Amino acid sequence: MVRSTAWLLGALLGLICVLPPVLMTPRTAQCTSLKTLKNKLIGRRRNMKHNLPINYTIRVHYEEVFKLSNITRLRARVEDLEDGDLQDVWLLVNQEVLKRILRVLPVRHPSYKYTTDLEDLFRKVQQVFPPQSDEREPPEQIEEIYKRVKEIDSKGWRFVTPKSLLDNCYRTMHCLFKDCFPSEDREQDYCGLPHWRKGRKRLQ
Ligand SMILES: *[C@@H]1O[C@H](CO)[C@@H](O)[C@H](O)[C@H]1NC(C)=O
Ligand SMILES: *[C@@H]1O[C@H](CO)[C@@H](O)[C@H](O)[C@H]1NC(C)=O
To answer: What Gene Ontology terms for biological process does this UniProt record contain (predicted)?
Structure first.
């Protein structure tokens, strides 16, 4: 029953994505995979909060906490920053975050499969990411983030809940790929915190 409902929903969503040929841009594939990811992320409360002990936290690098405020700060401070740079950081950071969450979950944990499904969806998103041009090097500050995320012996650790990490993922995704998430409200500012405060009641 649940399965067939899920299937129907999937089919319906597929249809909606296929129907309007006017919207077919080169970014369509990217948006399709991001929307699938978004739908999966809607289940993060149950999987990353209710299925875990109260206030359970995991240890992550400073850089793995990538929030809206980071985007605002980087946009203000880094010269020659392109959205593609931030999108690359988003992808890398969140793939690292998922690895960290998986490391603390036993295979039979009720959230294990959810997390590996997210990993798969991230791989799909990565496959349709536009490659960065060879001629351009990312700004130094961005390179620095890559380096620090990959460092095994980081000096800076923070303890955060898996749910808050996925909240960051969800919000920054809307901010960085806002073309993929059109809204009826034209004033919608996914990059601003007030949008998400307001949205709390809507289970976002
Ligand atoms: C969980 O954290 C909240 C907010 O920091 C705190 O009020 C609450 O007492 C904590 N609950 C437990 C069981 O530690
Ligand atoms: C985001 O900002 C926090 C400080 O608020 C910092 O510790 C973290 O490294 C930043 N993340 C990235 C990816 O720059």
So the answer is: positive regulation of cell population proliferation; positive regulation of macrophage differentiation; positive regulation of monocyte differentiation
CATH for the stretch 24-198: 1.20.1250.80
To the nearest 10 degrees (0 to 180), the angle between helices 2-18 and 28-41 is: 150
Domain ranges of the chain: 24-198
Q: Is the CB of 53 under 6 A from ligand 1?
A: no
- Ligand minimally distant from the alpha carbon of residue 61: 2
The structure's pTM equals: 0.84
Q: Is the CB of 5 under 6 A from ligand 1?
A: no
Mutate to test the pocket of ligand 1, among 54, 57, 161, 163 (most ligand atoms within 8 A of CB): 54
Query: CB of 65 closer than 6 A to ligand 2?
Result: yes
pLDDT in tens, 9-62: 666 555 555 555 455 455 789 999 999 999 999 999 999 999 999 999 999 999
Longest pairwise C-alpha distance within the chain = 53
